[in-house]
């Protein structure tokens, strides 16, 4: 998933909105971590579950804004975060249905993994639900809107 994030980084630019959908442990944060590494993001790219959003300046180019919409109950709450949608690359985990109307162009990434797959030890205090053993994932990337017309993914 990290490698996929790094590959996507090559086509992303300021104003791009990426929505990640998938169950806990699917690799949403791992993909964002790979994206951040490829962009030269400063700071540890980790799940922003409790802070809701983190901005990571990059070494060359737009900031990476990493949002976790899991705890949001309404799209208005996402708007209240006052994010710079136009100047940054914004990645929203759990964002399906929460970002409608924010941009006319969206890169939607749906990640699934096998049911019954081994999960990280739930009793470990420092377990990141996205840090699970390597196992197959199915990823469907859907690009909508004028920004993605003619862009090879």
Automatic annotation (TrEMBL):
<keyword id="KW-0067">ATP-binding</keyword>
<keyword id="KW-0963">Cytoplasm</keyword>
<comment type="similarity">
    <text>Belongs to the TsaE family.</text>
</comment>
<keyword id="KW-0547">Nucleotide-binding</keyword>
<dbReference type="Pfam" id="PF02367">
    <property type="entry name" value="TsaE"/>
</dbReference>
<keyword id="KW-0460">Magnesium</keyword>
<comment type="function">
    <text>Required for the formation of a threonylcarbamoyl group on adenosine at position 37 (t(6)A37) in tRNAs that read codons beginning with adenine. Is involved in the transfer of the threonylcarbamoyl moiety of threonylcarbamoyl-AMP (TC-AMP) to the N6 group of A37, together with TsaD and TsaB. TsaE seems to play an indirect role in the t(6)A biosynthesis pathway, possibly in regulating the core enzymatic function of TsaD.</text>
</comment>
<feature type="compositionally biased region" description="Acidic residues">
    <location>
        <begin position="118"/>
        <end position="133"/>
    </location>
</feature>
<dbReference type="InterPro" id="IPR027417">
    <property type="entry name" value="P-loop_NTPase"/>
</dbReference>
<keyword id="KW-0479">Metal-binding</keyword>
<dbReference type="InterPro" id="IPR003442">
    <property type="entry name" value="T6A_TsaE"/>
</dbReference>
<keyword id="KW-0819">tRNA processing</keyword>
<protein>
    <recommendedName>
        <fullName>tRNA threonylcarbamoyladenosine biosynthesis protein TsaE</fullName>
    </recommendedName>
</protein>
<feature type="region of interest" description="Disordered">
    <location>
        <begin position="115"/>
        <end position="153"/>
    </location>
</feature>
């Amino acid at each position: 998933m990290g490698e996929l994030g790094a590959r996507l980084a090559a086509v992303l630019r300021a104003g791009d909105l990426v929505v990640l959908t998938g169950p806990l442990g699917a690799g949403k944060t791992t993909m964002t971590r790979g994206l951040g590494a490829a962009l030269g993001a400063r700071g540890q790219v980790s799940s922003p579950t409790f802070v809701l959003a983190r901005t990571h300046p990059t070494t060359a180019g737009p900031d990476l804004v990493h949002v976790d919409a899991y705890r949001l109950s309404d799209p208005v709450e996402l708007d209240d975060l006052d994010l710079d949608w136009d100047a940054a690359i914004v990645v929203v985990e759990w964002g399906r249905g929460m970002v409608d109307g924010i941009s006319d162009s969206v890169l939607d990434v749906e990640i699934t993994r096998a049911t019954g797959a081994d999960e990280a030890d739930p009793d470990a205090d420092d377990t990141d639900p996205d840090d699970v053993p390597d196992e197959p994932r199915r990823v469907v990337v859907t690009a909508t809107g004028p920004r993605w017309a003619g862009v090879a993914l």
